[in-house]
Amino acid sequence: MNNVQGTGPIRPAQPVRVVIVDDHAIFRSGLKADLDESIHVVGEAATVEQAIAVIAQEHPEVVLLDVHLPGGLGGGGREVIAGSAALLGTTKFLALSVSDAAEDVVSVIRAGARGYVTKTISGAEITDAVFRVAGGDAVFSPRLAGFVLDAFGTAPADIADDELDRLSARELEVMRLIARGYSYKEVAKELFISIKTVETHVSAVLRKLQLSSRHELTKWAAERRLL
Amino acid sequence: MTTALTRPPLVRSSDRVIAGVCAGLAAHLGWPVKNVRIGMALATLAGGAGLAFYAWLWIMVPTADESARRNAKRPASPIAPGVTLDPAFSAVPPPASPSPGPPVAAPWWGNPDAGAFAPGGVSGGGPGAGYRDAVRPPWFRGRSMRHGKEMLLGAGLLLVAGILIAQLLGVDVPLGTLIPAAAVLGGAAIAWMQLDETRRAGLVDKTKADQAGGWARLAAGLALVVAGVLVMVSGSGSWEQTWLALLASVAVLGGVVLVLLPWALKFWRDLETERAGRIRETERAEIAAHLHDSVLQTLALIQRRAGNEHDVVRLARAQERELRSWLFQDPGKEAGQLSDRIKAVGAEVEDSLGNAVEVVSVGDTAMTESHEALVQASREAMLNASRHGGGPVSVYLEVSDGRTEIFIKDRGPGFDLPDVPEDRLGVRESIIGRMKRHGGSASITSTPDGTEVRLGMPALQTDNAEGKS
Questions:
Q1: Largest CA-CA distance found in chain B, in angstroms, rounded
Q2: Helices A102-111 and A215-223 meet at what angle, rounded to 10?
Q3: C-beta separation of B377 from B345 below 8 A
Q4: Which of B325, B361, B394 sits opposite A181 (nearest CB)?
Q5: Is A171 within 8 Å of A201 (Cβ atoms)?
Q6: Is the CB of residue B314 less than 8 Å away from at least one CB of chain A?
Q7: Are B434 and B377 a contacting pair, CB within 8 Å?
Q8: Is B320 in Cβ contact with A120 (below 8 Å)?
Q9: Distance (Å, whole) CA B342 – CA B362
Q10: Interatomic CA distance for residues B154 and B221, integer angstroms
Q11: pLDDT interval class at A63 (50, 70, 90)
């Protein structure tokens, strides 16, 4: 979870508008206090309904979204993303969770979140993650990379037609390094590629995670309760 | 019994004149078919006894095909299909001996052949009983009273026979009282048997068909009892009177049921609610006890140590780990896997040195001796990383078909391996040496941005070979 630290995503000139969705008021205020001043918290919500309303009203750039939320149909963060589907092009979702359960994480990523971090992450790290997501990149924690490797398997794809169901050799390397605790910058250095290329690979993996019709993915996540 | 003779199972033969009974019987008894047929014909002349016997066997004895099918379904049993018997086959087999003839052929209350009317044949006995148990229709299958029903039926039949004989001998038997009484007893027996069955069914399996059968039996038992009581009470054998009384009593019973049904249902529902409530209460108490023992204690400790940030973080992380494993632990998962050990070691290092150890695992494997060495080496690496790195430690475990790899990474200032003094056993002996001895490999990369230890262990078959060499 320390991989996003010090990787230096380009700080946007203007403050990033953020909505925090979490049902614990203590956590929301703590998170607000932790975030960099270049992040403007423009709204907060504690339930699925509130969240969808606030997001529709504020059009934030990034939503920090708890995976488990009361209200709605019980779908939690997944339901908030589905309810804000019209904004998915402009508003990015970053999933926050204490649960660490593969099922929760994979389901919220597949709903459209651009990344996943644990709630124990530090203020600086979460600020970095917000910038990164706002810039269109994906945020992978070592744990999420571990999920991806476990779900997709550690053997590289060799046939083109199951491209969505397998990771390429390069993507596997990137995921492995992230799982080992490497920052994007360190991954780039290790593989002799640019940070931009690392980001491209990570985004490609995220896309596969979201779009893969691989039925094992959901089944796998349901079976694997704790990572 | 030592010179045992194997008898072919009693089945209806396909080589048949009418139904294959005689041929089957001949094969079973080892007699010539012709003799059996002639014997049967002669017996038929003797008051139709042969005919009755033939008809009975026709009904009770399966064809060879049926028998094979049933045998296929039957669970394996220590008693072989061909049951051994004393060669000097006597009319009355000793009760303790396995019942002669194959169980599929033997009706559950006795044996079709010679022993059928002997007492030993009624109760059966020994291991043969369990065998019959398996082929008996499910509603007769019981554990506690294996021979009970057979005995009961035999006793009943004996009683009937006794009464008939007594009547023939001119004794006046009060049939008008006896028959209703028998009906009451029989009905009660059927209903109670049903009660016993449902209790057992609740433990074994609950299928709709069983329940339907149960209800039918309950109804039959009830009807028998009611009819018996009525006839007894009315005291007269008049059919019309009995019929009227029966109708009236059924009407009364229906009325009673109608009145009591809502109460019964309410009572039942209350009982269910109370039971569910009790279960919830137990669960709640268990959770409360756990939270009290763990979380509350830790929170109290954290308050007392509020000044020491290091301690607070350590306590919080330890508590988080404990709670997490309690909440999410999959009871179905096999314990003692490699990833569990690595996580446990990570937790231990985190507790002792205070720096977070984050373990990510992909794949898993059962522990072996060489894996234990891998765990010990990674423990040493984690301790080093936490001690010298001074920050969070990332541990990544990957188990694939070919090999097991563990990466331990910290963000400390790093060191040069050649600079490590020879006498420092930590790195050289506990990590590199240990891995080499167990057929694995270890490498250390250190930069000013951090240090990474990579441990590799080939998969089982290769490390077995290397372990022997």
A1: 119
A2: 150
A3: no
A4: B394
A5: yes
A6: no
A7: yes
A8: yes
A9: 12
A10: 20
A11: very high
Assigned architecture for domain B332-468:
2-Layer Sandwich (3.30)
What lies within 8 Å, CB to CB, of A43 at 6+ separation is: A19, A20, A54, A55, A57, A58, A60
Name the residue in chain B with its Cα closest to that of A152. Answer: B362
Length of chain B as a residue count: 469
d(CA B446, CA B427): 13
Cβ-Cβ contacts under 8 Å between A and B: the total is 58
**pLDDT of A145 over the 90 cut:** no
The span from the CA of B321 to the CA of B314, in Å, is 11
Per the prediction, chain A carries an average pLDDT of 80
Torsional sign, CA A8, A147, B334, B285: positive
Q: What is the pLDDT of residue B275?
A: 92
Would you place residue A157 in the very low, low, confident or very high pLDDT band (cuts 50, 70, 90)? low
- Per-block mean pLDDT, blocks of 10 residues, chain B (469 long): 61 76 84 86 80 79 70 45 40 42 42 41 41 44 56 82 82 71 74 57 48 70 74 66 79 87 89 92 87 84 83 84 76 71 87 84 83 88 85 88 87 71 67 86 84 84 42
A146·B361 Cβ contact <8 A: yes
Residue spans of the domains in chain B: they are: 1-124, 332-468
Q: Which domains does chain A have, with CATH numbers?
A: 16-137 (3.40.50.2300), 144-222 (1.10.10.10)
If you search the block for the tokens 């020879």, which residue do you land on? B422
pLDDT at B192: 66
C-beta atoms of A2 and B394 within 8 A: yes
- Is B453 near chain A, with CB under 8 Å? no
Residue B126: predicted pLDDT: 41
Distance CA B391, CA B356 (A): 7
pLDDT of residue B123: 40
Alpha carbon of A185: minimum distance to chain B alpha carbons (Å): 11
Note whether A2 contacts B449, CB cutoff 8 Å: no
Q: Token pair of B413, please?
A: 């200032």
The set of long-range contacts for B426-434, using a CB threshold of 8 Å and a minimum separation of 24, is B426/B380, B426/B383, B426/B384, B427/B380, B427/B384, B430/B376, B430/B377, B430/B380, B431/B377, B431/B380, B431/B381, B431/B384, B431/B455, B434/B373, B434/B376, B434/B377, B434/B380
Q: Determine contact, residues A116/A93, Cβ cutoff 8 Å.
A: no
Sequence-separated (6 or more) residues with CB below 8 Å from residue B160: none
Chain-chain contact of A149 with B398 (C-beta, under 8 angstroms): yes
B407 touches chain A (CB under 8 A): yes
Report the residue from B392, B394, B449 with minimal CB separation from A180. Answer: B394
d(CA A6, CA A127): 11
Residue B134 confidence (pLDDT) = 43
CB < 8 Å to B400, chain A: 154-155
CB atoms within 10 A of CB B318: 17
Which residue of A lies nearest to B406 if distances are taken between CA atoms? Answer: A180
